Queue: 4 jobs
Job 1
Amino acid sequence: MIIHNRYIPAKKFYAINLFGVIFVRHGVHLNAKEINHERIHTAQMREMLFVFFYLWYVAEWLVLLVKYKNSFLAYKNIRFEKEAYRHGDELRYLKHRKHYAWLRE
Ligand SMILES: [Zn+2]
């Protein structure tokens, strides 16, 4: 489900996936690749029972922030993001994706 709105996420971001619901800033149009990216996150969340996805996401980001000393590089190297960016343009990826594929990133 995609909800366009004026408040979520914060201005410098275009979309955020909260528990499988994709919030997109008013006036932003997600292309097929971006929607696929967010749907890959939804698949990851389901296999992590949502809560553990966010805990892992933040914990890995913090570890990578210490490693790279750069918040954007840390974000791009989170396993969940690596899988979602690597396969975002494969629009049929979710049809054949293996569970916990992000663990092999
Ligand atoms: Zn992402």
Job 2
Amino acid sequence: MATYNAPINDMMFLFEKLRNNKHYNELEKYKEVGPDLAKDILEQAAKMTENLILPLAKIGDENPAKFENGAVRTPPGYKETYKKFIEDGWTSLSCDPEYGGQGMPKTISAFFDEMLSSASLSFKLYSELSIGAYNCILRHGVDSIKKKFLPNMVKGIWSGTMCLTEPVCGTDLGLLKTKAIEQSDGTFKLSGQKIFITSGDHDLTENIIHLVLARALDAPAGTKGISLFLVPKIQIEDDGSLGQRNGVSTGSIESKMGIKGSATCVLNFDGAVGYMIGPKNKGLSSMFTMMNLERIVVGIQGLGISEIAYQNALNYSKERKQGKSNNTQSTNGADAIIDHADIRRSLLNMKSMIEGERALSFWLAQQTEVSLYHSDSKIKQQAADLVSLMTPVVKSLFTDMGMEITSDAMQIFGGYGYTKDQGIEQLYRDNRITPIYEGTNSVQAIDLVFRKLINKNGNIIGYYTQLIKRGIVESTKSEETKLFAETLNKHLEVLIDFTAWIEKSMTNSKDDVGAACNDYLRVLGLVSVGYSWLKVLDISFKEMKNNKKFFMDKIETARFFFDRILPRIDTHYKSGISGSKNIMKFNFN
Ligand SMILES: Cc1cc2nc3c(=O)[nH]c(=O)nc-3n(C[C@H](O)[C@H](O)[C@H](O)COP(=O)(O)OP(=O)(O)OC[C@H]3O[C@@H](n4cnc5c(N)ncnc54)[C@H](O)[C@@H]3O)c2cc1C
């Protein structure tokens, strides 16, 4: 079984030292949330994830969720752990105190998301969609709905789902068929089939609150005719007690490559009672509240799985002895594989990506809070634009890197990685869904390039590159960070050139742009991780005397990133701007 130690040191470093974010620090809401409280929460979270949740990963993989007699049973141990999980208040961590939440910022809850993803993604998914559904209802529901549903969702005794996908409608939600017929009392009756619904049914909570996209009878075709409905598995009486079973049933659950402990369900809606959330025919934009936050969390899933894969590969490389390294004097026996240059390169590849991603994700958590709660509407909008720009980047880059890192970790284990014993191949299988769900990574790249770079609020990418430029100028002033800043600047210029090429090609050939999207997302992602590393370097050089070992580790890890990972940008740029003529003309027959 894979082992795991929550990286609290690194998380606390970010929380304490990268806090110097003016607009985030202006938020009244989080003035009281200081490092002591954060440390306390993270230590408790580490205990929970390391001791109780980690063992569920293997159990869930070997005893997948089951569908029996029309109901779903979660793997052994899930029920008991979930009970403790909600008793300890973990579902309420980032929720609003008005509905019973603890009101903690995403700068803390994102770390908890990472720990859960490292320990067991399958177990995490049972509460993850609930938080997404909670956020959507909080933002778009009327007061009576919020009062009726949110407190029990915050407590975790009711869970939530997100029901978009149908048999012929995946990426293209315009094809959606589920119907909603309005009733005389203002409720709706929904009929249709949803597939691939995460936690669509299970035995952990007494009720499940489905958020369902459907089409009202007189709605226009395509995405402009989609509304959002709340459909409880069990109806709620006026006094808040559980009433009759609603017209939602589970048809089956999927047999999958990974995340086997998570139930992925076919749900049939047969005249199920639903309540419209948000305005009619604007359901997609309401659902995007849930999907956008979820996409960032899926990126964090990739980060969490990368972290545990790295930790295990590192431990194994210290134990496994094979071959003689070039640097040891020993004459008998073999050296630990960590002494070989290529294994060290692979480990640093993982470590420098993971720590850079964590710093980027921390910054994004700060921006998300500013976008939600800052009192100045201009600052709020700027932060919202940055979050919108970076959401597809974090979702795709972190999950794609999760594939690279889990694969490389397996490689370090050699044949023992491919076999089941060490739990490494499970990480690879579990991570494989993350580039697919919540909108595939290619679709994220298309979204980024066609919709996010420039929008009605202006030139978002221009604003972001200027922000990085200012950071570079600051770092160039110090002799210690100057070289790093100059290197990042060179790559930022490539991003700027690539952006100009995209803008020009947008009018000449949309296929050229479509074929370049993935490369562009990678360039923007790597520049962003580089920018995060530059901030970490600024602090590391300044604080060196306080903890030499920790900060030297940071500087050398950053050096690897700048020397060995940032240059990938050049290849992506060259590949991206090569156009699409031969791609589109190619005859696949
Ligand atoms: C384990 C699991 C859990 C899931 N959980 C949920 C859930 O809780 N709720 C829910 O609603 N759904 C859920 N899904 C569904 C998931 O979000 C979809 O599978 C995903 O969005 C892709 O849709 P699709 O499978 O229909 O693929 P398609 O949309 O058919 O895409 C197939 C391929 O075509 C590409 N493609 C599609 N359109 C374009 C385009 N315009 N341009 C270029 N390429 C394109 C895609 O990138 C992909 O590579 C889950 C799926 C799985 C497997």
Job 3
Amino acid sequence: MNKILNGGCLCGEVRFTVKDEFRLFHLCHCLQCRKITSSAFASNLFTAQENLAWTAGEHLTRRFEYPGREFTKVFCTLCGSGLPFPSTDNVSVIVPAGSLDEEPTIEPLRNIFWEEHTNWLDAGMKAPCVTGFDE
Ligand SMILES: [Zn+2]
Ligand SMILES: [Zn+2]
């Protein structure tokens, strides 16, 4: 039987559980994912909708639909953290990996939209790794 993972937003008002049973794990480097995460890429896990259960604060979430392309974000209206959302075909649920409190078993399978990736990601991966703020 697969483990149940806990997840939620940074402020802690929105909480969910999801089965550690993901069929895909993509890091998406497209421009829209970079904008909406304000970071180098989105980290999206895909699972069946019945594997997800909201345990607190679902009413505090809000859904944004990007016009002209199938692109969605659900976020906590208090702290702005990204949260799971159903795919537009309503078959899967997409879980931003950073919203999990624990590590999923699956590892990233692909870097998608690599042609749109940012150069500072390449440079950042080569920068020294330090503990804490380093000064
Ligand atoms: Zn929050
Ligand atoms: Zn993307």
Job 4
Amino acid sequence: MNRREMLLTAGAGAVALLWPRPSLAQDAKGFTLPKLPYDYDALEPVIDKMTMTIHHTKHHQAYIDNLNKAIAGNADLQGKSIEELIANARSINPMTLRTAVINNGGGHLNHTFFWEIMAPKGQGGEPSAELAKAIEAYGGMQKLKDDVLAAALGRFGSGWAWVVVGANGALEVVSTANQDNPITATQNRPGRKPILGIDVWEHAYYLKYQNRRADYVKAWWNVANWKAISENYAKAKG
Ligand SMILES: [Fe+2]
């Protein structure tokens, strides 16, 4: 193992352990679509029923089907949790398999995470005292929302806007392309731990908001599940 591989392994492993999701376990048949924690129309009027239905049953399902196909017959990848696969994705070979895992495994991980950090309007609660303190240290809730919006609008094409806990333990706002997830370690940087992520692919908002990504992202905060986001923060801080 060379130095780069050691760095990747160390950085990614630390992240994977800090972000356990029982719903993301892999069984003998591979990964399966988790149930939504609410009805398809529960996030109305912020996210419409048709969008939620297609997003969950078609888009998320397709990522899972394609991930299962990609890893079928690969003993090294079978049995691993989706976080392990994605955190260490850069060390998967050959490149075609790596790309398939990053795209489809990332799609599975990101969407499962996304469903869990939303709640019907008015039921999302408030940030925990610890998270509220971290948001204050960041510059306040409005700055956080402004920066998430800027990250969402700055992402050309498809991707995600995230709030993560960075290496120094403070909150950071980042965006990723396609289905990349911040827990994936890169050559120059260990993985980061997301606590909130907004899907800014057009499939997440186009039926209701058409080209108005900004309106969707601004409205999204009405369905933020602060209880789940606070739990993510507590886990990320360890
Ligand atoms: Fe999506």
